[in-house]
Amino acid sequence: MQIREFLSSGRVSFTPSEERIVQVLLSDYPGAGLTTAASLAKRAGVSDPTVNRLVVKLGFEGFPAFQASLLGEVEERLRSPLQMMDSRRPSPSDSAMQGYVDSVAMALQEARTSTPQSSFDRAVRMIIEAKSIVLVGGRFSGFIAGILSGHLEQFRAGVLNLGSPTRADFDRLVDLGSRDVVIGFDYRRYQRDVVDFIVQAEEMGAGIILFTDRWQSPAAARASVSLISPVEVQSPYDTMVPALAHIEALVAQVVAMYGPRLRARISRIEQVRRANDVTEGA
C-alpha cells in the first residue's frame, strides 16, 4: 500500500495538528513530502517535532526514512507502464465532452484519497454535537452548501444556510460561540466575504469545517477540519463534482456513525410530508 492510500485509509488516528500535515501531504502528493521537514511543518502551520512524531506514528524511523519510501514510489511509478494509462491527455479521437468527463472521473478518483478518513470522522462528530450549524459558500459553492444543508436538516435541528453571506448576515456572528459550528465552502478564486465570515466566526469561538481545494482557502488557517477536493479538469472552469462527492460521503458517514439516533427525526419528517402531500407515493 502506498503512503497516500495509508494516510487516507483511517487505519491510524491523527491529532488535529497531525491532520493538518496529512492534508498538506495528500493535497500535493508526493511533492509536499519531498521537501524538508521544516518546510512541510511551515506549510501545515505546525512545529517541526510534530512532523517527526507523525512519521514515527506511520512506522518510519524518522523523516529521512519516510522520504526514502516516497522516492521509492516515485521511481516505481516512473518505471511503470501505468503512468501512460494515468495520462490526462485525451486521445485525438476524443471529443471535448469525452475528454472532460474522463478528467472528472480522474478527479473523483483523486478525491478518494485527498482527505484522511479521520477528518471525515471529526467533521461528523462536530456536526452532531453542535448546538447550531451555519453554512456559507461562494457564488458557485453556495449551491453545494445548500445541498448539504438539506441533508443536515433531516438529521438535526438548528441548521441555517446563508449561501453567499450578505453584510446583513454578519450580524449573526454575535450569536455564535464554542458550541456552534460553521461549515464553509471556499474554492479558488477565494471569496472575501466567505473568508471574512469564517475568520470572524472562529474568533467568536465557533468550530470551523472547511471544504476547499488543494491550494486551500485563506480561511484554512482557522479551520478545525479541512476537507480537500481536487478541482482541476480539462476545462477553463474548475469542477465541483468531487466536492459534491465529498458532501455525499460526509452524509453517508453521518448515517454510518449515528443512524439509529437519527431515525426518529427522519420518521417524523416523513409523517409530516405524507400528511401534507409533499411527495408522491407512500
From TrEMBL:
**Highest taxon of the source?**
Bacteria
Against PROSITE patterns, the record matches this protein to: HTH_RPIR (PS51071), SIS (PS51464)
Q: Where is the SIS domain?
A: 123-260
Question: Is the keyword Secreted assigned to this protein?
Answer: no
What UniProt keywords are attached to this protein's entry? DNA-binding, Transcription, Transcription regulation
Species annotation: Mesorhizobium australicum
Which terms in the Gene Ontology molecular function aspect does this entry carry?
A: carbohydrate derivative binding; DNA binding; DNA-binding transcription factor activity
Residue intervals of the HTH rpiR-type domain: 1-77
How is this protein named in the record? Transcriptional regulator, RpiR family
| A biological process from GO | carbohydrate derivative metabolic process
